[in-house]
Structure formats: C-alpha cells, structure tokens
C-alpha cells in the first residue's frame, strides 16, 4: 500500500520536471550564489558603496541614481532615456555591460549563460520587493 503511494508521488514529480521549459524562470537561491561574483564590487546595503554602487532595491530603479556614486557619463545618459532596471534591461546589461553602456566603469565581462542571468536577476528582484 505505502509503496504504491510513493511510486505515484515520484511519477508526479517526474512529470513536473519533464514539463519545465529549457530556460526556467530565474532561481533566486542560485542567484544568491552567483552574486558572489558581484559582491566584490557591490554591496546590497543601502548607502554602502564599494567599487560599484550599492544594489539595494535596484530592481525597478532608474540607472545611475544612487546618491554620491560617481557613475560613468554613459550610465547617467542611459538613465536619462527613461528606462528602469527590469528583467529585459538587466539581462542586456549582465550579458555584456559594454554593449549596453559604452565606456561603462563596470569591469565585468558578463554572464554568457542566459540561465545565470535569469537567476541573478530573480535574486535582485526578490530583494527589491
Ligand atoms: C569589478 C567591479 C564590478 C563587478 C564584478 C560588478 N560590477 Fe556592477 N558595477 C560596477 C561599477 C563600477 C558600476 C558603475 C558603472 C558606470 O557608472 O558605468 C556598476 C553598475 C552596476 C549596475 C547599475 C547600478 C545603478 O545604480 O544603476 C548594476 C545593476 C550592476 N552593476 C550589477 C552587477 C551585477 C549583478 C554584477 C554581478 C553579476 C556586477 N554588477 C558585477 C562594478 C562592478
């Protein structure tokens, strides 16, 4: 009796796993691990700057707006176009920062894997809510 029940449960699990899309929604727990690559330059506490600005509540924010941080001209100009940091803009940014903002000060080559970008973005989004 017990056996049949657990077999049923694992079959349901398998069906769920197989129906997941190729690039699943971002996984914030993995994003937190990947953020170690950002943490050398970015704090998540408000007002605490390192080489880069604090990323406190960055999701939904206008680029280049953290007080007392000296951004590149390119980043300030990007913010002036009326965009905000959301899934699309952060994905473009983390793919290859220099492609989005020419002459940016952010010396990070980017995440090649779409899933890595989605995970970090999900992590930052959760923290901003
Ligand atoms: C080597 C240091 C460094 C690393 C590593 C780094 N950044 Fe940055 N980041 C910067 C700097 C410097 C800026 C400011 C860029 C400018 O003014 O052009 C910045 C800007 C940003 C911004 C825009 C902030 C704002 O206020 O608009 C975001 C978002 C961001 N980084 C996310 C990340 C994420 C996520 C990672 C990890 C995947 C990362 N960065 C890795 C240095 C870094």
What do you see in this structure?
This protein has helices at 2-18, 28-34, 36-39, 73-79, 87-95, 97-100, 114-128. It is mainly alpha-helical and 129 residues long. It has one domain: Cytochrome c-like domain (Cytochrome Bc1 Complex, Chain D, domain 2, Orthogonal Bundle). Helix 2 (28-34) crosses helix 7 (114-128) and helix 5 packs across helix 7. The termini are far apart. The model has no long low-confidence stretch (mean pLDDT 89). The structure holds heme C (HEC). Heme C binds next to helix 3 and helix 4.
Shape: globular
How would a textbook summarize the main sheet?
none
* Distinct bound molecules: heme C
Relevant CATH superfamily: Cytochrome c-like domain
- Secondary structure tally: strands: 0
Share of helix among residues?
40-55%
Low-confidence segments, given as residue ranges, are: none
Mean pLDDT equals 89
In what range is the share of β-strand residues?
under 5%
- Tell me the series of helices and strands, N- to C-terminal: HHHHHHH
Q: Please indicate the count of domains.
A: 1
Tell me the structural class.
mainly alpha
CATH topology: Cytochrome Bc1 Complex, Chain D, domain 2
In DSSP terms (H or I, runs of 4 or more residues), the helix count works out at 7
Distance N terminus to C terminus? Answer: 45 Å
CATH class: Mainly Alpha
CATH level-two architecture: Orthogonal Bundle
């Amino acid at each position: 009796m017990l056996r049949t029940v657990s077999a049923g449960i694992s079959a349901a699990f398998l069906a769920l796993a197989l129906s997941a899309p190729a690039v699943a929604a971002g996984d914030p727990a993995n994003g937190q691990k990947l953020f170690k690559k950002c943490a050398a330059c970015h704090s998540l506490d408000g007002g605490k700057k390192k080489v880069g600005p604090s990323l406190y509540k960055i999701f939904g924010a206008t680029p280049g707006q953290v007080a007392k941080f000296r951004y590149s001209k390119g980043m300030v100009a990007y913010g002036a176009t009326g965009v905000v940091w959301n899934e699309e803009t952060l994905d473009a940014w983390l793919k290859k920062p220099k492609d989005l903002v020419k002459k940016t000060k952010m010396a990070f080559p980017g995440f090649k894997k779409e899933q890595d970008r989605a995970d970090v973005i999900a992590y930052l989004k959760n923290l901003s809510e």
